[in-house]
# Entry
Amino acid sequence: MRIHYLQHVPFEGLGSLERWALSNGHTLSATRLYDDEPLARLQEIDALVILGGPMNVYEEERHPWLVKEKAFIKQALESDTLILGICLGAQLIADVLGAKVYRNQHQEIGWFPLELTDQARESQVFGSLPSKFTALHWHGDTFDVPAGATHIATSEGCRNQAFVFDSERVVGLQFHLEWKRENLAATLRECADELTEGRYVQNPDEMLCREGDFEENNRMMDQIVQKFAAAGRLHGAHGSAPSVPKFKPRRAI
# Structure
């Protein structure tokens, strides 16, 4: 499978997804949007991974490449491409699908429990995961679940944590199962100013000492993408492209 990923900042890469992809014989390519690299040709990729980043989906004036990125995501949604969005990536998918993206009541940074919804139990991708588990979070924004999507996960600090769309060909995750300890350490160095006092904000030492949780999260990420890829193959054989709202670039607010 040909996997292409969109990277928004130098310090936030694929994490454990790189090991999973290469060990399973998949190829990887990237567009580093912060370097204004060209986007891929959709006919030359099978799966699109949209990574996270500290910017917001509505900051087109500050980050002009967001406009072309959203247009590219729209094209991918209208095709049979598998799409996985993580954190900012999930927010971008929700935005392109017409859902609202906005500041969450709480900033959520650290290790906090997640609970799968009842609908997740019927999911091919998520159905075999534990009904409750602890995941690593780093976000201040959230999204409404897009129309036609299935709400998959929730937490005490943020109601909408994951969704699937179009027969699970599209997956959005607000949390970071793919991060390894070095990914978190890099983000702590680059985004330390975001560690404001809050109910759902942990200190760096508390976050970095959870080696077993990193390993468990990475195993769950492997499980999700393995089943996601299988679900996508079935969709490609029998599914049809969804109806996507007309793309309209937003002004920054």
Notes: The radius of gyration is 17 Å. DSSP finds six helices and nine strands in the chain. The helical segments are 16-23, 65-77, 88-96, 181-190, 204-208, 211-238. The chain has one domain: 2-232.
